[in-house]
Design brief:
The complex is a heterodimer of chains A (about 425) and B (about 170).
Chain A: H1 5-13, E1 14-19, E2 22-26, E3 29-33, H2 37-46, E4 58-61, H3 71-86, E5 92-93, H4 101-107, E6 116-119, E7 133-136, H5 139-148, E8 150-154, E9 157-164, H6 173-184, E10 192-197, H7 199-202, H8 206-214, E11 223-226, H9 230-244, H10 247-254, E12 267-272, E13 279-281, E14 289-291, H11 292-295, E15 302-305, H12 307-310, H13 313-323, E16 333-336, H14 341-349, H15 352-359, E17 361-363, E18 384-387, E19 402-405, H16 408-417
Parallel strand pairs in A: 3-4, 3-6, 4-5, 6-7, 9-10, 9-12, 10-11, 15-16, 15-18, 16-17, 18-19
Antiparallel strand pairs in A: 1-2, 2-8, 13-14
Helix pairs in contact in A: 2-3, 2-5, 6-8, 9-10, 13-15, 13-16
Chain B: E1 6-11, H1 18-21, H2 50-53, E2 57-62, H3 74-80, E3 86-89, H4 94-102, E4 106-109, H5 112-122, E5 128-132, E6 137-142, E7 145-150, H6 155-163, H7 166-173
Chain lengths: ~425, ~170
């Protein structure tokens, strides 16, 4: 019997099988941020176990509330910062060098094919784009990860999601994943790994694959995962060239973590995206999705372009093409948050930041920011936001607010009209 | 080991998410106890008032996909500091369920028709529940009616509950 990607990764990392279908795996990386890690740190200190299993495998960032907004968030940052220094965690990213965890860690080459990664953040599934098993966990799992370098999971079942056809112009990975979640529901992939395959995924850039995998958890999945290929190698090349020497050697090594043709899946979803329109959510659950055309004209008050889903360079670039030379509707306010300093810097160099500013966008520093209403960009009661983020729960961006999830192109087009609008880049049925 | 007995809070909706259990704005707290007043604060549900209905409860009974969304362990903690150590549901989001057992708490899954029967017979009444985790049985009672319901708990989950959580278990074993 062949194996799925997740099964191959688990086999390569198995430490123990304490009972039944529970497998304890060795971790290649433990990612940390300042919201869920400080309680783990203070608990370890209280237990007299203030140790780390391997400082080189722990990566930490302050990203959710940065700059600190009050004394409580300043303390969270301090606990993480002091801990990183105390344990000589070299890969710690503080203000000025920090970015949204699921954007900055891949950018630094920390997610690799075949890796096992945990983080106290549900969108850790993003790193599956690199062919890693990457799962969001709670603080106790994180604490054990930090201390022992292991984590327990049920032996993962995988759902194969075969994405085929040709995307119309102006339709993106975000539209694909929203449509997919709508198709299978918010618990459609619970306790399973969503293994993405098919021509459409093969043709995606790493930025797009990260958008796809980022929202796997919104369908309940433990992780999203893409098969590592040449695109993966090219993205990681600056970080792996010394290790592998040639791209061919790297590809061969990574292909150990591609699924076998006779692998066994709990479900197989066939999804032809040729007729897919731009998508948008309308309720408080990520599976409440309609086409943008069906929601067109719905009023919005704020536009937010950023986050671990869609705050990467390609996202900013696409949005900038739509707003270039134009101004946002006077009835809305708009915020863009490049997800990392490198993205910010590249967008500056490419003139993209100026396009946003000229259009009337507020450009913030890299941060999780408005996505979860913890620091900036909070909605007032009764307001709606056109947002490129991943979660539209009731109160997510502020009590009484409504979040409409969409692609950066749709968000940019909506900023110009003040209502939910299709982007001019969208050409139904067109090529391609 | 924690106890899993007491009054029941019924939450009659599927997909109750972590942001409804404890909103993100409270994630700036560095202690568990600080979460106590804010449990289920953003949950909008007919007949439910977080200010009145949580006090004195020990068990939650709810529908499918409970705890979906964020990985925040603040969600189980917010229950724990309010004296609620057990949630019974048709289904759970993976991370929430794992977080419950990692804290030595119970996340019990029952078939949808069993949950439906419990709602039909007990919801809206002063209901109490007593759990025998070794036998995998709880007794639910209200107005003189009493029913015994069996549930499945894996050997591994039981060992986490008995150890007091995953950290204690991992420390003994790895």
């Amino acid at each position: 019997m062949g194996k799925t990607i997740a099964e191959k990764i688990f086999d390569a990392h198995l430490v123990d099988n304490p009972s039944g279908d529970v497998q304890v795996v060795r971790l290649d990386a433990v990612f940390c941020h300042e919201i869920t890690t400080p309680i783990a740190i203070t608990d370890l200190m209280a237990r007299g176990k203030d140790r780390v299993f391997d400082a080189t495998k722990i990566k930490a960032v302050i990203d959710h509330v940065t700059p600190a907004k009050d004394s409580k968030t300043a303390l969270q940052g301090k606990i993480l910062r002091d801990w990183a220094r105390r344990h000589n965690i070299i890969d710690f990213f503080d203000i000025g060098r920090n970015g949204v965890c699921h954007a900055i860690f891949p950018e630094k080459g920390f997610a690799r094919p075949g890796y096992t990664i945990i983080m106290g953040d549900s969108h850790t599934c993003t790193h599956g784009a690199f062919g890693a098993f990457a799962a969001g966990v709670g603080t106790t799992d994180l604490e054990v990860g930090i201390l022992k370098g292991v984590c327990a999971f049920k032996k993962p079942l995988s759902m194969k999601v075969n994405i085929t056809g040709t995307l119309a112009k102006g339709v993106y990975a975000k539209d694909v994943i929203l449509a997919l979640i709508s198709k299978i529901g918010v618990n459609g992939a619970t306790n399973r790994v969503m293994e993405f395959s098919g021509d459409v995924v093969d043709a995606m850039t790493m930025d797009q694959r990260m958008t796809l995998c980022n929202m796997a958890v919104e369908a309940g999945a433990t992780s999203g995962i893409c098969s590592p290929d040449q695109v993966t190698v090219d993205y990681l090349w600056p970080f792996i060239k010394e290790e592998y020497g040639t791209k061919e050697a790297a590809l061969t090594a990574f292909q150990v973590f591609t699924p076998d043709a006779d692998a066994s899946y709990s479900d197989v979803i066939e999804f032809d995206v040729s007729d897919l329109d731009p998508q948008v959510t309308f309720g408080f659950k990520p599976d409440q999705v309609k086409s943008v055309s069906a929601m067109a004209g719905e009023p919005i008050h704020q536009v937010y372009i950023g986050s671990c889903t869609n705050g990467r360079f390609e996202d900013l670039e696409i949005a900038s093409k739509i707003i270039e030379g134009k101004e946002i509707n006077p009835g809305v306010r708009a915020i863009v948050s490049p997800a990392t300093p490198d993205i910010y810097s590249r967008a500056l160099a490419a003139g993209i930041i100026k396009i946003f500013m000229d259009a009337g966008f507020c450009v913030t520093n890299p941060t999780c920011g408005a996505c979860l209403g913890m620091s900036n960009g909070v909605l007032a009661e009764g307001e709606a936001c056109a947002s490129t983020t991943n979660r539209n729960f009731n109160g997510r961006m502020g009590k009484g607010g409504m979040v409409h999830l969409m692609s950066p192109a749709t968000a940019a087009a909506s900023a110009l009209t003040g209502t939910i609008s299709n982007s001019p880049l969208f050409q139904p049925g067109g090529d391609k | 080991m924690k106890t899993f007995n007491g009054k029941v809070l019924f939450l009659d909706r599927s997909d109750i998410n972590t942001d409804e259990i404890i909103p993100a704005k409270y994630l700036t707290e560095s202690t568990k106890i600080a979460l106590k007043p804010n449990l289920l604060e953003d949950l909008v549900l007919d007949g439910f008032d977080a200010k009145k209905d949580i006090e004195g409860k020990a068990v939650v009974i709810t529908r499918d996909n409970f705890g979906c969304g964020s990985s925040r362990e603040h969600a189980p903690w917010a229950f724990e500091v309010n004296g609620i150590n057990m949630v019974i549901a048709t289904g759970f989001a993976r991370i929430f369920r794992q977080n419950m057992f990692n804290c030595g708490m119970m996340a019990v899954e029952l078939d949808a028709d069993v949950v439906e029967g419990v709602f039909a017979d007990f919801s809206g009444k002063e209901t109490t529940l007593e759990t025998d985790i070794d036998k995998g049985i709880f007794t639910i009672s209200a107005d003189g009616i009493s029913r015994q319901i069996t549930f499945a708990i894996s050997e591994y989950d039981l060992s986490l509950v008995k150890a007091g959580g995953w950290l204690e278990f991992a420390d003994q074993n790895y």
